[in-house]
Amino acid sequence: MRKTAKEKGKKFPDFKSDKEAEHFVDTADLSEYDFSDFRPMSEVLADVELEQKDMQVNIRMPTTLYGALKATAKTRKIPYQRLVRKLLADGLQSMDSKK
User: How far apart (Å, rounded) are the C-alpha atoms in residues 83 and 70?
Assistant: First the structure.
C-alpha cells in the first residue's frame, strides 16, 4: 500500500544557496519532511566521480602548494586530482552563492 503525500511528510523546499539550506536545516523540524527521495552522500559523490572527465588542465603552482595538496589528499585517502576537482567545484559554488 502506497503512502499518500500527507503520510510521507512535507516536500523539501528548493533553496537558492547552501546558506539558505543550512539555515533551513538548523531551524526546521525535519521530522515533518519526506526523505524518501534522498540518497546517501556516498552515492551522490560516486555519480559525480563517474562523470566523464574529458578535459585536461595543466597549471603551475609552488612546490609547497603541490606538497600540501598531496598531503591533504593522502590524509583523506583520495587521489590528489580528485581533491583538486573538489576544491575547484566548491570554490566556484561558493563564488556563485555570494553573487
Answer: 9
**Residue 5: band (very low, low, confident or very high) from pLDDT cuts 50, 70, 90:** very low
**DSSP readout, 13-76?**
PP-SSHHHHHHHHHHS-GGGB--TT---HHHHHHHHHHS-----------HHHHHHHHHHHHHH
Residue with cell 499518500: 4
Q: Residue 10: pLDDT above 50? A: yes
- C-alpha cell of 15? 533553496
